[in-house]
Every structure is written in C-alpha cells, then in structure tokens.
Design goal:
alpha+beta; DNA polymerase, domain 1; five-stranded mixed sheet; 5 strands; globular; binds FE2/S2 (inorganic) cluster
C-alpha cells in the first residue's frame, strides 16, 4: 500500500508498504530518517518516540497505515521543522547524528560546530549537560522533553521523572538528563521573556500532546529515586 503523510513539514510518500509495517520502519528504512531509534520494538524503551498529529507516540507501535494523511515530527524536525530539518540533517555530524552519537560530534556541536546554531535549545541542553553517551536513547528523550516543556515550562524533578519514565537510558544514570531538562527549561523561559533573544522561546511543532506516547504501555508511577536505579 501507499502511505502519504507529512514528515517534518514536508509531504512524503512511501510505496509498497506492507500492512504490518510500523511507522518506525517506514521512517527509518523507507524515508531515510534514522534519527528515531529501534531498540525494543515493543513500546518499552521510548527510543522511537515521535509526534503523530501532535501526540507523542512510540513509532514502533504505530502501524504505518495509521500515518496516512497524518503529520509526523521526528527528532530530525526538532530544530525547526521544514527547511531547518534539512539544515540540521545536512550538517553531517550535526544535530541528529551528532546528538545521537554524542562523542566528538556532540562536542563539536556544543562548541559551535557545523549546524550548531540550528539545534533546538532542548538538543543543545542535552549536549551541554553531558546527557548523551552512547546516544541510543537520546532522540526519544529529546522528543519527550520537548513535549514535556510545552506542557510544563518549569517542571519539577518529579514531573520530569514521570514524563520521561517511558524513556530508558542504559548509560547516563539519568542525573545528567534531569540536568539537561532543567537547563533547557531555564533557557526556553529566558528566551520567552526576552524578545531580543532569537532562540525559539516555545518549541515548535504540533500542539502539546498532553502526556506520554499514547500507544506505549503506560509507565507505572515511580517513587522518588527509582529512576536512577534502573539498569
Ligand atoms: S523501539 Fe519503540 S519503544 Fe522501544
Ligand atoms: S546514552 Fe546510552 S542509552 Fe542513553
């Protein structure tokens, strides 16, 4: 079957899609957007999080056909959507692979390397706070953080833990992720109150989804401190 949708502001078409294919497969394998990661394919890890018509979803649990006529925003579109997406992606080691890969690429971006000026403040905050190690979880965390900060511009630690409970990270121990979310929140609030600040004061994209990825399994409420204890 054919799937027509809008991805990061651009009309996209995928042909010969099997009825059982996931949106994640279509994005990664048919549309050339590898930013959303495939880790568990079971809705457990959040590494494939994208927006589907403004709702944060796990793309691995969304049938490709459900994206027909829909608007999809992936991590590649976070820096501005539309034309900005191309700029970010074209930056080579820039945003998507840089953020996802961390390491030297991430360092280059944090220091103003190619494409750095196009990173969304959430992306920049993750780099600067050292919240990226292997980077496999990072695209999902970026999208989930983006969604959280649209709903709550100044979230508490508990709120962050709750919002990101569906995004598993095996490397960072989560503290630096918390630091990154607070840093992004501070920057976004500062830019919102300063009209001369050209940075994006409110994350672009569709309307806030109002919660965790709908098709993902609901994360259980976690007591304080539990997040750091995850493997
Ligand atoms: S790959 Fe989709 S939730 Fe893990
Ligand atoms: S940085 Fe490796 S899984 Fe999160």
């Amino acid at each position: 079957m054919r799937v027509d949708c809008t991805v990061n502001g651009e009309p996209r078409v995928a042909d010969d899609v099997w009825e059982g294919e996931s949106l994640l497969y279509v994005l990664r394998e048919r549309l050339g957007l590898p930013g959303s990661k495939n880790a568990c394919e079971q809705g457990e890890c959040g590494s494939c999080s994208v927006y589907l018509d403004g709702t944060l979803v796990c793309a691995c649990l969304v049938a490709a056909g459900q994206a027909q006529g829909a608007e999809v925003v992936t991590v590649e579109g976070l820096a501005g959507g539309g034309a900005a997406v191309e700029g970010v992606a074209d930056g080579g080691p820039a945003a998507v692979e840089g953020v996802a890969g961390g390491g030297l690429a991430g360092e280059g971006l944090a220091r103003g390397g190619p494409g750095a000026d196009r990173l969304h403040p959430v992306q920049a905050a993750f780099l600067e706070a050292g919240a990226v190690q292997c980077g496999f979880c990072t695209p999902g965390l970026l999208i989930a953080t983006h969604d959280l900060l649209r709903r709550d511009p100044n979230p508490s630690d508990a709120r962050i833990r709750e919002a990101l409970a569906g995004n598993l990270c095996r490397c960072t121990g989560y503290q630096k992720i918390l630091d990154a979310v607070h840093l992004a929140a501070t920057r976004l609030q500062a830019s919102a109150s300063d009209p001369s600040d050209p940075s994006d004061p409110s994350p672009s994209g569709p309307a806030p989804s109002g919660g965790r990825p709908a098709p993902c399994r609901p994360a259980p409420a976690l007591p304080p401190g539990t997040l750091e204890d995850r493997p």
